[in-house]
């Protein structure tokens, strides 16, 4: 994903994941029927942000790269975290479909959202360690 | 379907030669087929060239159906779902009908309606000008293709002026190779067609299904053949049906011809030659009685004048003979001989006494007297001979004037004619030929001939109507012989066609059955109906659709158990696989009002089905209520929803209800006001949605731009996919058609929409990672301005 190096960093992936969890667990006033898409968006942004932060530390040059390049690079820089690339790939596959404009797919179900949420939470935890 | 389907015509022609169908039967089938598919290239059986995939760009309607002033429905060419909503009578269906009519020249909803129904095709408020046109884009063809049908002020529906233009090139639909695919894939489905599956008779359900499967040609050909067979059957029975009446008439008729006609009708085959002769001849050659009567009328007798002359001659001869009464010619001749001998003796013995009597001496005085006596006696004998000869000649002449009595006078005519008097008169004449007996004969014969002529006339008068009837019947019988042969051939043709049709049909059903089952699985929702194999069974009036339907676990259930909505869903499940067949050149599907009878759960299913079809096809759905758009909103399925409204005077307007761009912005607005989420989360999420809105706008612009330039759809999707990792590259693709000009994006955006636009772009691009805690509302409105600038 495009983006600049996060300078102020006033929002963390954990915050985004927590908000997504809030949407998943109970009704949020004002969101109404929009919640699955917003939830998917928040998880996706959390994934992007998690990777951005990782690359800022591991390989600053990768920060501006597209997600496909990032996913190709990830295994090379996480040899000590063998499960991380798989988590990232799985989550991205679902989230890109659920929240992207290309997605003429059915809206995500709560179960799908929960799976992605768990995957991204695990990834964020692994990569921030 | 991986391979291009062979057309029905191709399959039939192939099978005709494979199956060794007799020539005359094959000719009947080909004739019937040709009559039903004049444009389908039946003789050649060649497929049309496969054109590039075609998408709808706009449908323009003017003065047609519910639309008065020209209204244009703009569509985004390429895959995606467009729902056109409008209340009943808003004119939305007019667009669907116009598209179908413009491209196929007919409309299924009207096709089977009466003339009265068809009369309403012109708009009441603005009947002139009347024109419909469809703009399409074709893969690999730059520019757009416009198909127009326009009508002159008084023209009837069928006499439109059609034109098809691609850029500056005019090509007919046939030349574009679209006619056959339009028939085969039928990318139009109307509510009426869905309904025909349900409300109609089993046969019309079968036919509708055939139509959906593109097997119209089979049905139409079979129909033509069975109708021809019915006509031939009728003709082959007409003579038989008319026979009892004819026989009754003949039995009641006294004429010998009637008897002969009945005899000719006894055997099989009928003796048509004799019957024909009886019907047209005068009957003399066939009926003995008429021959005899004609013999009577043919009798000729001499003229009374000639007979009278002959009678006079005879009486004169008789008078001459009577005058010789007492004189005997033989005596006179013998006496003359004696005297002649005595005279000779006297010349030698003059004066001597008579040697016979010894008395008087034979002197000169005696000799003179004796010579005179010899002369007198000789003349007397000659006169008597002549009178007798003349009498005999006169009598012979008279008798020969009248021929011998004709045999016909001895015949028995019953009461009709009595020749006895004439016969007796003839006999009397022969006994005594006289003026009297001739007069009697002439009178008797003349009277008889009058009666005979009358009898002939009467018979002719009585026979005439029978003869006419017979002549008509003979024609029927001649036709019947030809019709019987034809009916047999037609029967073979129908049987063969039905057998082949059954195979073709069920073969064609296989690839669809799977997809149908999938569609049904999505559509059925709470329905407890399970769909098994589908077959088209039976023939002629017994033809029907057999669906292996399991309801609540009970197999073999009747279709009637299904609800209207279920049947409509089923219709759709059958339609979609065909219209979206892989080898169809048409990338669009137009569906008019599929929602009507469906319950809410099924509408959800429909929304999912249409969305999944919209992944690879341009799906345009017309619907009169908002349940489908509502289902799409609820399920968060991407769709462009357009609302058609019709004001007074048939002025129709169309406005977008929401499109992906708008939806992102609406969602962003909702999110911006959601206090339940932290400010930071809201800022990041709003930036993400604004980025989504910009990207969605780019997708629209890029698709329109590249597809319009003739770039194949797959290539456009590839370009979009490659640019999708960077919003800046997406915008570059939209603005310049080239991602390498990404660096020029900010400058160009500033030119197009000012500083606010450029700010919105930067915020959307970076805000997801580095959120700005400024005015989110303004960020969203600036983004909206940006998306508008992009789409200019």
How much of the polypeptide of chain B forms β-strand, as a percent range? 5-15%
Q: Sheet bearing the most strands of chain B, described?
A: 6 strands, antiparallel
Low-confidence stretches of chain A: 1-8, 101-106
What is Rg of chain A?
14 Å
Q: Helical residue percent of chain A?
A: 55-70%
Q: Indicate the structural class of chain A.
A: mainly alpha
Q: What structural class do the secondary elements of chain B suggest?
A: alpha/beta
Describe the protein:
The complex is a heterodimer of chains A (129) and B (792). Chain A has 129 residues and is mainly α. Chain A has helices spanning 13-25, 35-58, 67-77, 84-99, 110-128. Residues 1-8 and 101-106 of chain A have low confidence and may be disordered. Chain B is α/β, with parallel strands linked by helices and 792 residues long. Chain B has a six-stranded antiparallel β-sheet. A six-stranded mixed β-sheet of chain B has the order 8-11-12-3-13-14, sandwiched between helices. In chain B, strands 9-10 form a two-stranded antiparallel sheet. The chains are: A mainly alpha (129), B alpha/beta (792). Chains A and B meet through helix 1 and helix 2 of A and helix 19, helix 21 and helix 22 of B.
Can I get a quick summary?
The complex is a heterodimer of chains A (129) and B (792). Chain A has 129 residues and is mostly helical. Chain A contains 5 helices and no strands.
Q: Keyphrases for this structure?
A:
heterodimer; A: 129 residues; mainly alpha; 5 helices; 64% helix; disordered N terminus; B: 792 residues; alpha/beta; 6-stranded antiparallel sheet; 6-stranded mixed sheet; 14 strands; 58% helix; rod-shaped
Topology:
The complex is a heterodimer of chains A (about 130) and B (about 800).
Chain A (H helix, E strand, L loop, with lengths): L12 H13 L9 H24 L8 H11 L6 H16 L10 H19 L1
Helix pairs in contact in A: 1-2, 1-5, 2-4, 2-5, 4-5
Chain B lengths: L7 H11 L4 H14 L17 E9 L8 E4 L5 E6 L6 H13 L3 H4 L3 H5 L10 E9 L2 E11 L9 E6 L2 E2 L8 H7 L2 E2 L1 H9 L2 H11 L3 H36 L4 H11 L5 H9 L7 H11 L5 H20 L5 H20 L15 H37 L19 H12 L3 H90 L4 E9 L6 E8 L12 H16 L8 E5 L7 H14 L4 E6 L3 H8 L5 E7 L5 E7 L1 H13 L6 H30 L4 H11 L3 H10 L8 H22 L9 H15 L2
Parallel strand pairs in B: 3-12, 3-13, 8-11, 11-12
Antiparallel strand pairs in B: 1-2, 1-4, 4-5, 5-6, 6-7, 9-10, 13-14
Helix pairs in contact in B: 2-9, 2-17, 7-8, 7-18, 9-17, 10-11, 11-17, 12-17, 13-15, 13-17, 14-15, 16-17, 17-18, 17-19, 19-20, 21-22, 21-26, 22-23, 22-24, 22-25, 22-26, 24-25, 25-26
């Amino acid at each position: 994903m495009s983006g600049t190096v996060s300078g102020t960093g006033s929002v963390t992936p954990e915050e985004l994941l927590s908000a997504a969890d809030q949407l998943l667990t109970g009704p949020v006033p004002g969101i109404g029927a929009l919640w699955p898409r917003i939830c998917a968006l928040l998880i996706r942004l959390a994934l992007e942000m998690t990777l951005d932060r990782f690359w800022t530390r591991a390989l600053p040059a990768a920060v501006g790269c597209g997600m496909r390049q990032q996913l190709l690079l990830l295994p090379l820089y996480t040899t000590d975290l063998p499960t991380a690339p798989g988590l990232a790939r799985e989550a991205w596959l679902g989230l890109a479909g659920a929240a992207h404009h290309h997605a003429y797919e059915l809206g995500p179900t709560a179960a799908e959202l929960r799976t992605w949420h768990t995957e991204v939470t695990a990834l964020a935890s692994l990569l921030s360690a | 379907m991986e391979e291009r389907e062979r057309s029905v015509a191709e399959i039939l022609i192939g099978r005709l030669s494979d199956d060794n169908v007799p020539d005359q039967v094959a000719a009947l089938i080909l004739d019937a087929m040709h009559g039903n598919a004049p444009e389908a290239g039946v003789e050649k059986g060649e497929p049309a060239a496969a054109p590039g995939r075609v998408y709808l760009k706009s449908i323009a309607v003017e003065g047609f159906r519910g639309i008065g002033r020209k209204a244009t429905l703009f569509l985004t060419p390429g895959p995606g779902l467009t729902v056109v909503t409008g209340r009943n009578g808003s004119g939305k269906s007019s667009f669907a009908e116009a598209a179908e009519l413009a491209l196929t020249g007919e409309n299924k909803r009207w096709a089977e309606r009466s003339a009265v129904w068809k009369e309403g095709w012109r708009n009441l408020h603005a009947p002139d000008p009347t024109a419909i046109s469809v703009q399409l884009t074709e893969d690999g063809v730059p520019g757009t293709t416009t198909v127009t049908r326009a009508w002159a002020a008084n023209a009837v529906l069928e006499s439109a002026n059609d034109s098809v233009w691609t850029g500056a090139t005019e090509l007919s639909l046939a030349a574009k190779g679209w006619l056959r695919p339009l028939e085969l894939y039928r990318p139009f489905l109307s509510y009426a067609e869905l309904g025909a599956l349900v409300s109609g008779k089993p046969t019309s359900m079968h036919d509708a299904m055939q139509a959906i499967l593109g097997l119209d040609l089979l049905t139409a050909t079979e129909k033509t053949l069975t109708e021809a067979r019915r006509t031939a059957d009728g003709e082959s029975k007409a003579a038989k049906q008319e026979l009892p009446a004819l026989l009754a008439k003949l039995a009641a008729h006294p004429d010998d011809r009637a008897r002969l006609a009945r005899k000719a009708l006894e055997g099989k085959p009928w003796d048509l030659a004799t019957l024909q002769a009886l019907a047209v001849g005068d009957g003399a050659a066939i009926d003995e009685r008429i021959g005899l009567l004609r013999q009577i009328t043919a009798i000729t007798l001499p003229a009374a004048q000639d007979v009278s002359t002959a009678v006079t001659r005879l009486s004169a001869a008789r008078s001459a003979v009577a005058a010789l009464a007492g004189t005997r010619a033989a005596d006179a001749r013998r006496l003359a001989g004696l005297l002649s001998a005595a005279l000779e003796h006297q010349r030698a013995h003059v004066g001597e006494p008579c040697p016979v009597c010894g008395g008087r001496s034979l002197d000169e005085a005696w000799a003179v007297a004796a010579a005179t006596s010899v002369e007198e006696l000789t003349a007397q004998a000659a006169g008597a001979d002549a009178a007798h000869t003349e009498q005999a000649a006169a009598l012979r002449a008279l008798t020969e004037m009248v021929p011998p009595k004709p045999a016909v006078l001895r015949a028995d005519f019953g009461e009709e004619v009595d020749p006895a008097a004439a016969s007796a008169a003839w006999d009397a004449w022969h006994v005594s030929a006289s003026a009297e007996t001739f007069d009697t004969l002439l009178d008797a014969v003349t009277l008889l001939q009058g009666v005979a002529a009358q009898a002939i006339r009467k018979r002719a008068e009585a026979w005439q109507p029978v003869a006419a009837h017979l002549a008509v019947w003979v024609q029927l019988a001649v036709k019947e012989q030809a019709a019987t042969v034809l009916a047999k051939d037609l029967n073979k043709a129908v049987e063969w066609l039905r057998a082949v049709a059954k195979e073709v049909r069920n073969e064609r059903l296989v690839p669809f059955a799977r997809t149908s089952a999938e569609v049904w699985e999505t559509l059925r929702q709470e329905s407890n109906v399970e769909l098994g194999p589908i077959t088209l069974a039976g023939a002629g009036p017994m033809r029907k659709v057999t669906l292996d339907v399991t309801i609540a676990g009970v197999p073999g259930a009747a279709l009637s158990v299904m609800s209207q909505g279920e049947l409509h869903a089923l219709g759709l499940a059958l339609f979609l696989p065909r219209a979206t067949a892989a080898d169809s050149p048409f990338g669009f599907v137009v569906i008019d009002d599929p929602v009507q009878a469906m319950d809410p759960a099924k509408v959800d299913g429909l929304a999912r089905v249409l969305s999944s079809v919209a992944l690879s096809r341009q799906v345009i759905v017309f619907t009169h209520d908002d349940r489908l758009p509502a289902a799409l909103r609820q399920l968060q399925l991407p769709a462009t929803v357009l609302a058609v409204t019709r004001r007074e005077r048939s002025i129709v307007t169309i406005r977008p209800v929401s499109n992906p761009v708008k939806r992102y912005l609406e969602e962003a607005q909702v999110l911006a006001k959601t206090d339940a989420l932290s400010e930071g989360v809201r800022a990041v999420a709003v930036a993400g949605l604004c980025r989504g809105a910009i990207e969605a706008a780019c997708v629209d612009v890029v698709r329109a731009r590249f597809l319009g330039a003739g770039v194949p759809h797959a290539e456009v999707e590839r370009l979009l996919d490659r640019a999708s990792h960077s919003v800046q590259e997406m915008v570059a693709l939209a603005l310049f058609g080239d991602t390498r000009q990404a660096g020029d994006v900010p400058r160009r955006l500033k030119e197009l929409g000012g500083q606010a636009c450029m700010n919105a772009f930067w915020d959307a691009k970076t805000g997801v990672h580095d959120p700005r805690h400024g005015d989110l509302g303004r960020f969203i409105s600036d983004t909206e301005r940006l998306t508008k600038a992009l789409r200019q």
